[in-house]
Amino acid sequence: NNMKFDNIYILVPVFNENKVIRNTLNELLKFFSNIIVVNDGSTDNTIDKLDDLNIALLNHEINLGVGAAVQTGFDYVEKIHDSYAVITFDADGQHSVEDAVSMAKEIQICNEEIIFGSRFIKHQKNVPLVKRNVLKVIAFITKIATGIDLTDAHNGLKAYKVSAIRKLKLQFSGYSYESELITEVAKKNISYKELSTNIKYTEYSIKKGQKLTNGLLIIEDLLKLWR
Q: DSSP string spanning 147-214?
């Protein structure tokens, strides 16, 4: 275990991922000592899978959605006096731990306050074609609506300096978590950059993943936020 990143926190929102959560966390624990799991009202036995792992566990009694889970994690990290940054990481095993390590290194040396992961810088061929096109439309509308220019506006892998978290005030309703975040980044003029990430689509994660109709909901949300 050669890296610990003492002042960087990995935040894993989880809802009903009992099949994969242990594996995801064990991979992360090889590189990171500070892992926060926000159990967002899971109704399966996700929580039993975490018993003996060296993580901080925060619980929502009911499912409040990924945005609220992220905010719970943010609030927790903000109170830790030497915390420097938070990296959000999906529970379902799609994200690569190597990418989280790259983000942890980069967030410590870059000037920007937020790093957005992007599947389109180097690895776009790994994204299924229809999904790729929906994501490109979302990125395009995001740019028009907010002025924030991202190649991938809806990637759960991101790094935030605590200084950025303190500026963000998110309400979180439905799917608009990402859209709301991006709108806040625009309004508060928070500096950002992108970093290439890969995604591992497994049969499990595709089944669990957001359906393409959610892409349309996201677009609708963006247009609502844009005023």
A: ----S-S--S-EEEEHHHHTT------GGGHHHHHHHHHHHTT--EEEEE--B---HHHHHHSPPHHH
Question: CA-CA distance, 163 to 112, in Å (whole number)?
Answer: 11
Nearest to 20 by CA among 150, 153, 210, 206: 206
How long is the chain? 227
pLDDT digits (tens, 9 = 90+) for 180-205: 899 899 999 999 999 999 987 666 65
The per-residue pLDDT for 37 is 98
The one-letter amino acid at 93: G
Cα distance between residue 149 and residue 28, in whole Å: 30
Q: Per residue in 89-124, is it b (16+ CB within 10 Å) or e — as a string?
A: bbbbbbbbbebbbbbbeebeebebbbbbbbbbeeeb
DSSP 7: T
| Residue ranges for the chain with pLDDT beneath 70 | 1-3, 172-176, 201-227
pTM (2 d.p.) = 0.89
Angle at the Cα of 144 (from 131 to 125), degrees rounded to 5? Answer: 25
List, in sequence order, every residue forming a beta bridge with 101; answer none if it has no partner. none
Give me the phi and psi of 95, to 5 degrees please.
Answer: -80, 155
